[in-house]
Amino acid sequence: MSTATLQRRPLVKQILAGADDNLLVVAGLGSSNWDITAAGDRPLNMPLWGAMGGTVPMGLGLAIAQPSKRVLVITGDADLMMVVSCLATVAAQQPDNLAICVLDNEKFGETGNQASHTSPRNNGPTDSGAGTDLAMIAKGCGIADTGTVRDQADVAALVKDLRTRKGPVFRLVKVMVEKLEFVMPPQDGAHLKDRFRAALLGSP
Amino acid sequence: MNDWRDDIFQVLQDHDIKQVYHVPDAGHSRLIEACQTSNSIRTIALTTEEEGIPLAAGAWLGGQRSVLLMQSSGVGNTINLMGLTKTLRFPFLTLITMRGEPGEFNSWQYPMGQGTPKVLEAMGVLVMSADKAEDVKTTVDHAARSAFNGGQAVAVLLRQKLVGIKTFGKK
């Protein structure tokens, strides 16, 4: 069993509190999508329903295109693991407006909470992972500002870092395994894209 | 006549392309170097071609046009994420140097090279093609118009006949 104590929903709500037009959010498929939507659906959220592995690159393309806005990527451990080398691409570009927050519950939540690679090794026959440390990977890829958050006491600093610290910022947050209500944003990708562009650029 | 790679660079500038994604590629190297030294274009080196699709989507969300440069062998790496072009319906342009076409000496290049047009079409990408240097400029220009004016996902296959047959040892 994971020893995590942080709950993702109130955490994401706190991260996004007071979000204004300067904050552009991209969230990965599954739980992260439902989390940002539970915090309050808004046009400047881009919640993904698929495209696994593409969340961080999408945030990077957006961050380069909009250097004066803050871009925040919120996603899960398995989404990032699928194209984990994208962290090296981020490091090569050094976008100072990009923050990446990985909510790591050590599970493949959408498919029945099987152990993901970030679960500990030797955790029993059906619940063992590799003990993969994504913050260490991010550091190894060349992102200097990385960190891992496990305790409520560190959440205020986490929020401040994700919202304001010079990027690229990478934070791994260990969160509980929970069964949560699905809070879904619109599903039509073209609509999500058009409303985002209309809010950001004035026309879709 | 200009080198066709310089023609492509000109077309990318004419269409206000701001982000260029690439992996190292012999066929595209001259174009990549031109982009790297350009003041108006940001080049982004990828670790895998599939990063290029969500990057292009992100750039478009932020109001910028982009292009993905890759080789036919990289096309297979992009396919699930290529679905984004359909779900988000955003303009997408990719220029693909072909391998595994008639004359290719490396048998490992044939499966993806021969599969490239079929898998792109299967994903709803409009596939265009150039095999003569004098056609490249017009073809890439039309592709960019289809993408950025017509809202399509478009690939231009730069045929091996155009790019040249890699021989190893003999240049």
Give your account of this protein's structure:
The complex is a heterodimer of chains A (204) and B (171). Chain A is α/β, with parallel strands linked by helices. Chain A has a single domain, classed as 3-Layer(aba) Sandwich (Rossmann fold), CATH 3.40.50. Chain A contains 8 helices and 8 strands; from the N terminus they run αβαβαβααβββαβαβα. In chain A, helix 5 crosses helix 6. The longest helix of chain A has 13 residues. Chain B contains 9 helices and 6 strands; from the N terminus they run αβαβαβαααβαβαβα. In chain B, helix 8 links the parallel strand 5 and strand 6. Chain B has a 6-stranded parallel β-sheet with strand order 2-1-3-4-6-5, with helices on both faces. Chain B has 171 residues and is an alpha/beta fold. Chain B starts with a helix and ends in an 8-residue tail after the last helix. The model of chain B has no long low-confidence stretch (mean pLDDT 95). In chain B, helix 1 packs across helix 2. Chain B has one domain: 3-Layer(aba) Sandwich (Rossmann fold). Classes of the chains: A alpha/beta (204), B alpha/beta (171).
